[in-house]
Amino acid sequence: MAEARYCWRCRTVVPMFDEAEWEKIHAELTSYRQSIKNLRESTGGTIEAAVAEVDAAVIRLLHFELTGVSVSDPEALWHHRLADCGEPCRACGKPLRTRIARFCAECGVAVV
């Protein structure tokens, strides 16, 4: 099951996907984006209109099955991958934004 971690973009604790879970959700997210792109190309419509038209129910269901939590915005899931997070900050405990971060963006402490 996904691990709860702080997401600096969402500014809250969210379920983060391990690599096996990420493979599943990534495939659905990619398909979702492609559907939006295809709809825009065929209709000439806006992104907003295409997003409103394309059903994200499969992503929402898969997210719930993997985490036990409902998701309102499927696009937010693109940055909920454990492998993309850095180690926890030694001062505040929140994950560094990347694996190569030199300081914590949340509290400013330098990583040694």
What does it look like?
- It contains 3 helices and 2 strands, in the order E-E-H-H-H.
- Strand 1 (3-7) and strand 2 form a beta hairpin.
- The protein has 112 residues and is mostly helical.
- Strands 1-2 form a two-stranded antiparallel sheet.
- It has one domain.
- It has helices spanning 19-43, 47-53, 57-67, and strands at 3-7, 12-16.
Radius of gyration (CA) equals 16 Å
Share of residues in strands: 5-15%
- The tally of beta strands, per DSSP, is 2
Q: Label the structural class.
A: mainly alpha
> How would you spell out the order of helices and strands?
EEHHH
Helix content: 25-40%
- Tertiary shape: elongated
Largest sheet: 2 strands, antiparallel
Number of discrete domains: 1
Q: State the separation between the terminal residues, measured CA to CA.
A: 31 Å
Output mean pLDDT: 94
The number of helical elements comes to: 3
Strand order of the largest sheet: 1-2
**Unreliable segments of 5+ consecutive residues:** none
